[in-house]
Amino acid sequence: MEENQLYHFIILAEDFSGREGETSSLTFTSGENTCPSIDLLRDYDGDVIYDETVITANIYDDSTVSAKLLLEGTTVASVDESGRLEFTWDTGEYKDTDYSLVIRAWDAWGNQASCAFTMTVDNQDPPGIELDDIMWYAENETLVVTGTAWDKDSWNTVEKVSITVEKVSATGEQGKHAFATMSPGEEGRYAWIAMIDTGSLEKDRYSVICKARDTEWEWSDAKEETFWLNRDNILPTVSITSTTTMAQEGDEITLSADVYDADGDISSLTWRSSLTGPLSNENPAIVQLKAGIHIISVSVIDNEHGTAEDSITIMISEAPEEPFTHITGFSVNGEEAIIWGTSNQEEGIIYIDGGPVGVDVKDGMWSYTSTFTPGNHTVTTDTGQERTIYVSQETSEGQNAIEGGITFALPIAFVAVIAVIAAWAIHLKKKPVK
Fold first, then answer.
1. Does this model's pTM top 0.85?
2. What distance in Å separates the CA atoms of residue 143 and residue 209, rounded to the nearest whole number?
3. 1-124 and 237-317 share one CATH topology?
4. Which CATH entry fits the domain spanning 128-229: 3.40.50.300, 2.60.40.10, 1.10.260.40, 3.20.20.140?
5. Residue 218 carries which DSSP code?
6. Please, what CATH class does the domain formed by 1-124 belong to?
7. What architecture is domain 325-430?
8. Distance CA 418, CA 423 (A)
9. What are the tens digits of pLDDT across the range 353-391?
10. Nearest Cα to Cα of residue 352 among 383, 319, 387
11. Quick check: 100 and 69 in contact, CB under 8 A?
């Protein structure tokens, strides 16, 4: 059968006696025998890639064609109506290794074509590290080093933080080495701390060198600071002078301390809360604290990394709720009207045509019933709510409006019941969660 030719088939059936039945016919065009063509924008095989990489191919065929790109067996892109297949690969989401990719195409007649290639992801993103504080405690010969570490590759993690302490005067001569203890934090960052015994170290100036390593064995750039290991250093002193021990959320609290160093200078001061972490490096410091029991500490470090600390406890209560009286609905029957709502006060106040009216509040709800002259009346609250009530001279039927201006006729007694139920429901909905 030749390609792209018109063929007409006639089907004739007869039984054993030779009688012929009805004939049927079938006409069709023979299919093509050529496969789709895959044209890569360039030769991707063997490429070493990083960050974002775009893979592009054009798919050609005389008939309707379909195609998809598979990355390690998973479909990541399909051909569009114009025959173009494009995939933007964010390699930062993938480990550094080799990956197999295949483009598969097929036409309406089942003819197929494929193109396979291999690409290597190598983002070369080493981890990062910061050295925050160096504190030396003379009383127990302990050097405390703290900082943060992270890795830019979202699939990777920081595995180790290495701390080396060596003499400045003899670089390369290792004095002490330790691995830090790490605690995972937000956005892939790790807080780390190392505690190093300095009992065997001589009095001298030392370098503290910190490096982080990820799970791919890539090391960060080193962070380095120096300090004097001086056992003759007179440690600084610090004493909190703030007298505030109780306050409310939103209150401004002044934290202050007396700080002194007999044989040098104070190089840093830090206020911290046990609930929220670092607060300020100022002295005095003005802060606001959330509700809870805070242990507020201040730590100082002198120019030879000697340290001192002091702390106090401050209890912060929740700020009182702002007073409010809300209108949630009203009902009018002739010249009589019922207004209802919610309030967090023992006695609420509403204003009818500008005049104050007290309303009794029970379990957070209130209602007010009065006779009004015919016409429009304005009801307002201290929080800026405003409702307009229209009172007619009709006495047989009433009108009701709840928050949306919906009106309907109801007997006044039944409306009163609805008013109480509606006020209670809205009160529950608006009641603040502690």
1. no
2. 13
3. yes
4. 2.60.40.10
5. P
6. mainly beta
7. Sandwich (2.60)
8. 8
9. 999 999 989 988 999 999 988 889 999 998 888 999 888
10. 387
11. no
